[in-house]
Amino acid sequence: MSRSAHPAGPRHADVLPEGHYTAPADDLNALDPKVWAHTVGRDADGVVTVGGIAVTQLAEEYGTPAYILDEADFRDRARAWRTAFGTDADVFYAGKAFLSRAVVRWLDEEGLNLDVCSGGELATALSAGMPAERIAFHGNNKSPEEIERAVRAGVGRIVLDSFQEIVRVAHAAESLGKRQRVQIRVTVGVEAHTHEFIATAHEDQKFGIPLADGQAAEAVRRALQLDGLDVIGIHSHIGSQIFDMSGFEVAAHRVVGLLKDVRDEHGVELAEIDLGGGLGIAYTSDDDPREPHEIAKALSEIVTRECEGARLRTPRISVEPGRAIVGPTAFTLYEVGTVKPLEGLRTYVSVDGGMSDNIRTALYDAEYSVALASRTSDAEPMLVRVVGKHCESGDIVVKDAFLPGDLAPGDLIAVPATGAYCRSMASNYNHATRPPVVAVRDGAARVIVRRETEEDLLRLDVG
Ligand SMILES: *Cc1c(COP(=O)(O)O)cnc(C)c1O
């Protein structure tokens, strides 16, 4: 599956192991703006900087590993989504990608809404002052307590995921004397992943209610009968790391088909359609993500066309990007601990973190890039695998990449595009203490999530 067959620096010209690597960049010191946050560059000494601060200084102050987040970049991306979708559509940031109180405040200030999918995410959102009516509550098995808290708080919508939940939410709303706005999540038989999508995918997954065999229509039928529920629309989320809009075309076609059936059967035109998230980002220079304005235009055209065909009023569209907003805004800063060349294979570079701060490589076979951050180097490229310090041979951060051949212990390296699903999926494996998230903006850095301490770990262990 090697994408490009010309990876040779002289050091590895003869024998190259199989892998996903692409040829080394002409200049290993260059930082491809596609995969790095907007304000990242190098200073006169060659040290990587973000928001005007050198990573050497950040490492000294906050230690490594650390997630370094470019706040200006986050705000730019959030605003770009907001602007692209305008006032006729809503953008819900998917909090599961990365959520903290600072993030909630940035979203609030930039005019975005917020998706949560657990009581913990809801508590974070509310404690940072996100107005409840701008929160959507997701999940395939919300507990009765979570449902009650969400209804009581007055969240703008609950996305219903099963027949049981239709009844539970209606019951919670009625007993609180409320009418809860809800969407019904359907599975449309489209599975999108990276560069392909499958239009005839089985609805063989835990999320949503299948459109096939009339189940989704039956869910709408039941929900419309319940006094506690205000059915505002239909929800569909087709996958992750999507680059190709054709999956959304099929999804919109099928969702609009349901809207039409609902209109024909009940005389009700549901007002909203949520097309979910899943838009891809560049993890390596090979990825070419679309800009928010292109995505907004494409989705709006697709839905409008489908609705005209079905003689329906065009519903209000909402989308739920998580990765596409936060993913590119952060990189993980590590210190190199050991460098172990394996003759004819590759060089293993061990860093002071690993699968506890980035599980995506082990879990999804994800690809990342990496750069020497504390200096530049003119040494020839060497093929490396960046690995962590955990007791597990699958503990890989970057499977295959090129770094300068003079890389040595004590160097700082940075892995870009780790803003999404890294801190939020971080674990304490091997009793690792989870790294901090440091937000940098206009020459100032501040910790928005502090580093965990051994004391934190021991506090949970009550003996
Ligand atoms: C995960 C998820 C998202 C966000 O996905 P990204 O790939 O981060 O954009 C949006 N909506 C729902 C329902 C999800 O489950």
User: Which CATH class of the largest domain?
Assistant: Mainly Beta
Give the total of domains.
Answer: 2
**Biggest sheet overview:** 9 strands, mixed
Oligomeric state: single chain
Q: How much strand content do the residues show?
A: 15-25%
Notes on the protein architecture:
The protein is an alpha/beta fold. The chain folds into 2 domains: about 190 residues, Lyase, Ornithine Decarboxylase, Chain A, domain 1 (Beta Barrel); about 180 residues, Alpha-Beta Barrel (TIM Barrel). It contains 12 helices and 24 strands. The longest helix has 21 residues. It is globular, with a radius of gyration of 24 Å. It binds pyridoxal-5'-phosphate (PLP).
Task: Give the arrangement of secondary structure elements.
Elements: E1 41-42, E2 48-50, E3 53-54, H1 55-62, E4 66-70, H2 71-85, E5 89-94, H3 101-110, E6 113-116, H4 119-127, E7 135-137, H5 144-153, E8 157-160, H6 163-175, E9 180-187, E10 191-193, E11 196-198, E12 209-210, H7 215-225, E13 229-235, E14 239-240, H8 246-266, E15 272-274, H9 292-310, E16 316-319, H10 323-326, E17 330-342, E18 346-351, H11 360-364, E19 371-372, E20 381-387, E21 396-404, E22 412-416, E23 437-441, E24 444-449, H12 454-460
Parallel strand pairs: 4-23, 5-6, 5-16, 6-7, 7-8, 8-9, 9-12, 9-13, 10-14, 13-15, 15-16, 18-20
Antiparallel strand pairs: 1-2, 2-3, 4-17, 10-11, 17-18, 17-22, 19-22, 20-21, 23-24
The structure holds pyridoxal-5'-phosphate.
Pyridoxal-5'-phosphate binds next to helix 10.
